[in-house]
Amino acid sequence: MLSEQQVKEFDRNGCLIGGKVISDDEVDELRDELDRVISKGQSGFAEGEAKPVLISNLSGKADAPVWQIVNIWEASPAFERLLYTKPVIEAISQLTHQPDIQIWHDQIQYKPPKHGGVNNWHQDAPYWPVLAPETPVTAWIALDEVDESNGCMFMVPGSHKWGNHIKFLESHSTDTYPHLKDFTPPADAEINRVKAVPWPVRKGEVSFHHSMTWHGSGKNVSDRPRRAIALHFMTGEARFVANGQHVMKKFINLKDGEPMSMAGNHFPQLARGGRVMPMPERVKATTAR
Ligand SMILES: O=C(O)CCC(=O)C(=O)O
Predict the structure, then answer these.
(1) What is the structure's pLDDT at 143?
(2) Residue 243 belongs to a domain
(3) CB within 8 Å of 29: residues ≥ 6 apart
(4) For residue 132, how far is its CA from the centre of ligand 1 (angstroms)?
(5) How far is the CA of 47 from the centre of ligand 1 (A)?
(6) Is the pLDDT of residue 64 over 90?
(7) Which atom of ligand 1 lies at the shortest distance from residue 151's CA?
(8) Distance 9 CA to ligand 1 centre (A)
(9) What does the mean pLDDT of the chain come to?
(10) CA nearest neighbour of 202 among 289, 141, 125, 153
(11) Does 44 reside within a domain?
């Protein structure tokens, strides 16, 4: 559980380092699984075999890739077990002030050594127009020691309370990273200056960010990989918005405005009524170590 002080800090800043949540052994297993899934690639899965939703290069640049895998949990038992990490789900419930928590989707963020690319400035919620309201919080778990040399995230504390500025953020190319000029936050905002802070995360630690917090990440110029997984969560408030687009939309068989809690097997429920759901026996049975 997070302390009251940590919850206050998150409410104010829209980002928080939550401490170590997985052991070194678990990290090793997840890294092995990541290698296995990447080596198969998008087309390497047999007909009917469990596979991730998407494997792609987020940067769009072959010489500076950021490998993104959406829903690796569907292809890997170790990543499926990770969804049920109790301290993470409890924290998400505390940070969202919501008793019902569900996975929206996961997302590997892998920058290879020496030439890993950047993730441009953005807010998450504007990229999720199939969900309303904009409530989710992300748990980002480092599978390496992540610092400025291998492309850690930068956060802009307080920006989650400034509204939707995705067009402004998208207009800031990677060249201007990490400087964000020309933006004046609302004068009455709790934090009303733009200050990007580097956001290092230790191996096995979790970092939380609000879906409206401005964030991005730099190049990996080190000789170490930068591997991490973002777990994007929904709360019980989430409703389906039928006219939005998203890679997960094809799995949502709902009418406009219906609760995402009814969205089906691609979106497992992880807490209900303030209680963390037990890991299903089928999932538990896959424990390797
Ligand atoms: O890992 C990164 O560089 C960015 C991750 C991100 O944008 C997110 O988790 O929302």
Answers:
(1) 98
(2) yes
(3) 78, 288, 289
(4) 20
(5) 31
(6) no
(7) 3
(8) 20
(9) 94
(10) 141
(11) no
Is the residue at 209 inside a domain? yes
Q: For atom 9 of ligand 1, which residue has the closest CA?
A: 230
Q: Supply the residue whose CA is at minimum distance from atom 3 of ligand 1.
A: 217
Instruction: Give the Å distance between the CA of 202 and the centre of ligand 1.
Output: 15
Q: DSSP string spanning 13-78?
A: HSEEEEEE-S-HHHHHHHHHHHHHHHHH-TT-SPTTS---SEEEETT--TTS--EEEE-GGGT-HH
Is residue 217 in contact with ligand 1, taking CB distance under 6 Å?
Answer: yes
Q: For residue 204, what are its two tokens?
A: 């096995």
* pTM for this model (two decimals): 0.96
Give the range of the structural domain holding residue 214, as residue numbers without chain letter. Answer: 4-39+49-284
Number of independent structural domains in the chain: 1
**3-class DSSP state for residue 122?**
strand
Mutate-to-test residue for ligand 1 from 109, 111, 219, highest number of ligand atoms within 8 A of CB? 109
Task: Ligand 1, residue 153: give the atom nearest the CA.
Answer: 3
Q: What's residue 259's pLDDT?
A: 98
Gap from CA of 229 to ligand 1 centroid (Å): 8
Q: What CATH number should be reported for the domain holding residue 228?
A: 2.60.120.620
| Nearest atom, ligand 1, residue 228 CA | 1
Examine the pLDDT at 69 and tell me if it is beyond 80.
yes
Residues 228-238: tens digit of each pLDDT: 999 999 999 99
Residue among 42, 37, 112, 135 nearest 80 (CA): 37
Quote the percentage of the chain above a pLDDT of 90.
Answer: 85
12 in any annotated domain: yes
Does the pLDDT of residue 96 top 90, yes or no?
yes
Residue 9: predicted pLDDT: 98
Question: Residue 62: its pLDDT value, please?
Answer: 81
pLDDT attached to residue 177: 54
Which atom of ligand 1 is nearest to 152's Cα? 3
